[in-house]
Amino acid sequence: MEIRGARYHYPALVGSGLIRQLGNQARKFLAGKTCAIISDDKIAALFANRVQKSLTSADFRPTLITIPPGEKWKTLEQAGEICDRMIAAGLDRQSFVIGLGGGVIGDISGFVAAIYHRGIPHVQIPTTLLAMVDSSIGGKAGVDTRAGKNLIGAFHQPSLVIDDLDVLKTLPRRELNQGFAEIIKHAVIADATMFRTLESWKASSGSASGALALQSLIKRNIEIKSQIVAKDERDRTGERAVLNLGHTIGHAIERAGNYSKFLHGEAVSLGIVAACTISIRKAGLLRNQRDAIVQLLQRFELPTCLPKNFPRKKIFDALKFDKKFESGKNMLWREAGIQLHFLSYL
Ligand SMILES: NC(=O)c1ccc[n+]([C@@H]2O[C@H](COP(=O)([O-])OP(=O)(O)OC[C@H]3O[C@@H](n4cnc5c(N)ncnc54)[C@H](O)[C@@H]3O)[C@@H](O)[C@H]2O)c1
Ligand SMILES: [Zn+2]
Predict the structure, then answer these.
(1) For 150, which of 107, 128, 142, 341 could close a Cys bridge (C-beta 3.0–4.6 Å)?
(2) Ligand 1 in contact with 134 (CB < 6 A)?
């Protein structure tokens, strides 16, 4: 499928066995011969060989650069080190960057692509469901600082996105489920039919029909996200803010749990439930609509209430670090309002 915005367009391919075709696909869209494959150690051990082989057989010269897995490595220091290694490997303005991994790698590799020689092309090969349906689309790239997540970054649209469904076979179940939090978010804000499809979703990607269902689900999510992004590429007009559903509180919960208690999608699940509760109070959301959303999140084994001993005060403290905490007025109410608008047809 083709992703289009006012100033960019790029293909996003979704299917099985696509890594094998990477070299040929890259040939069509990228002029340079040299590239960096940026990945984490765990993912590189699984897929880097396949990626390198496909590239070299199409005459590219790839350099593999890995960092340790996990959010705590999505930093400016790591981005700097990656750049140094790219310089040492002789990569120049004609080179391009491939991000092979989940959202962490997608974000840091996109950031490196945005700043290296003032910007070189970026290819996304997402390896988590979350990265396929969300972070690889939309051009937001960046790193975390001690003060908060994604505080330093750039907008840099990819030149090519390759979603090879085969890579999901090794993804742990908890990681797969957290991807569904973003999928459910998309359903709530934009697609009631997808919401119903998810209510009877069977996790059977091993079968041919299961793989087809997953393929079309991923495509639909890419479509939803890219259409919203196209209306507000730089997150300025407020239209892209619908994608923040569950994220204001979700990010605060992630932070309050020191980024180790909950995965991003799990925190978003809790954030969606919180946003629903606010919507009931502030914006007239019906209880049965909230209940349907909670049940759907639970169907994918996502948390919908905080553990009893979770430090709740820390969540409120963490809210202050939110980028959306604009002139003292938190965007939560805005999220709640948006939600009412889109939920009225559920
Ligand atoms: N740019 C955006 O628009 C955007 C949107 C949403 C989230 N994000 C970012 O995405 C990040 C979260 O991404 P994530 O959930 O993909 O986490 P992640 O990148 O940390 O990956 C999760 C874990 O799964 C492992 N893994 C990845 N693919 C695997 C596979 N196929 N098989 C086995 N193990 C695999 C990784 O090594 C890692 O340990 C956060 O940093 C978040 O801020 C960005
Ligand atoms: Zn998210």
Answers:
(1) 142
(2) yes
**Helices then strands, each counted (H, E), the chain:** 13, 11
Q: Which of 186, 149, 180 is nearest to 265 (CA)?
A: 180
For ligand 1, is residue 170 a contact (CB within 6 Å)?
yes
Rounded distance from Cα 181 to ligand 2 centre (Å): 8
| pLDDT per position as a tens digit, 140-192 | 999 999 887 888 999 999 999 999 999 999 999 999 999 999 999 999 999 99
Nearest ligand 1 atom, CA 74? 41
Kindly state if the Cβ of 104 falls inside 6 Å of ligand 1.
Answer: yes
Question: Torsions phi, psi of 329, nearest 5?
Answer: -110, 110
The reported pLDDT for the residue numbered 101 is 98
- CA 262 to mean position of chain CA atoms: 16
For the Cβ of 42 lying below 6 angstroms from any atom of ligand 1, the answer is yes
CA of 60 to the centre of ligand 1 (A): 26
Please, where are the H alpha helices in the chain? 22-29, 41-57, 76-88, 103-115, 129-130, 173-190, 192-199, 208-231, 247-256, 264-283, 287-299, 312-319, 332-343
| Structure confidence by residue, pLDDT tens digits, 305-340 | 999 889 888 887 777 666 554 444 444 545 554 444
Does the pLDDT at position 241 exceed 90? Answer: no
253 CA to centre of ligand 1 in angstroms: 17
> What is the pLDDT of the chain when averaged over all its residues?
90
